[in-house]
Specification:
This protein is an alpha+beta fold and about 230 residues long. The chain has helices at about 60-75, 105-115, 120-140, 190-195, 200-215, 220-230; strands at about 1-5, 10, 15-20, 25-35, 35-45, 50-55, 85-90, 95-100, 145, 155, 165, 170-175.
Length: about 230
């Protein structure tokens, strides 16, 4: 896979072997690409476990994601069960690489596989409970996710409804929230962001509300549009 970022060409492909201080990783396949990085399915050479490695395009967002997740997982005041686990980090070809536990699929893919068929309330309810528990824990740590959307909520596996939040590259500490900052996907943007008003924890509650509405009443046309927009050119 070849990506162009600024003047630097970054390449990673199946079969490549990467090394951190703790272990080595064999790249198996590229499974996703977003605004801030590519993600590959890899195998830990030492443990044979499957992991997801995110190759960061934008160093500042990667450092922020690393810092936020380390803070979450080092805190004894929160339940870590609803946040993706950061296992390792290293640099490859001058790129920050974040090693995560391997999760199943995000909720855009879930609805895509269901061809736009909504989830029933009995399934949405435990998802909602977990999301609000996660927000409660983030509030204890003074952290705003700021980018809650179906893409960033993932099933742990396909056998149940356990979920985890991912992608903390745009997360903020509450004291960093600056009035007038433009954030969130356009169609999911909270009123206070659109109006240029001060924002805090309700920003993420709005994001959860949008996700739950999407699960209860998905729009197949919106899913198709999202897939088209996510397809690399």
């Amino acid at each position: 896979m070849v990506s162009l970022h600024g003047d630097c060409l970054f390449t990673v492909s199946a079969g490549d072997v990467l090394h951190s201080r703790k272990s080595g990783f064999v790249v198996q396949e590229i499974i996703g690409e977003g605004a801030f990085g590519e993600v590959a399915r890899c195998q830990n050479i030492n443990t044979k476990a499957t992991v997801a490695i995110k190759f960061i395009k934008e160093f500042k967002s990667g450092q922020r994601e690393k810092m936020i997740l380390e803070r979450i997982h080092s805190s004894l005041r929160v339940n870590h069960a609803h946040f993706v686990k950061l296992l390792d980090h290293f640099h490859h070809n001058s790129r920050l690489c974040l090693v995560y536990e391997m999760l199943s699929m995000d909720f855009f893919n879930v609805l895509q596989l269901r061809k736009g068929k909504p989830l029933c309330v009995s399934k949405i309810r435990p998802i909602a409970k977990q999301l609000f528990m996660a927000l409660s824990d983030l509030k204890k740590l003074g952290i705003l996710h700021t980018d809650l959307k179906p893409d960033n909520i993932m099933l742990v596996d396909q056998r149940g409804l356990k979920i985890k939040l991912i992608d903390f590259g745009l997360a903020l500490r509450t004291h960093e929230a600056k009035t007038g900052t433009i954030m969130q996907a356009t169609g999911l943007r909270a009123p206070e962001i659109m109006l240029g008003l001060p924002f805090s924890y309700p920003l993420d509650i709005w994001g959860v509300g949008q996700i739950l509405l999407f699960l209860f009443k998905p729009k197949p046309s919106a899913i198709a549009h999202h897939i088209k927009m996510q397809t690399p050119v």
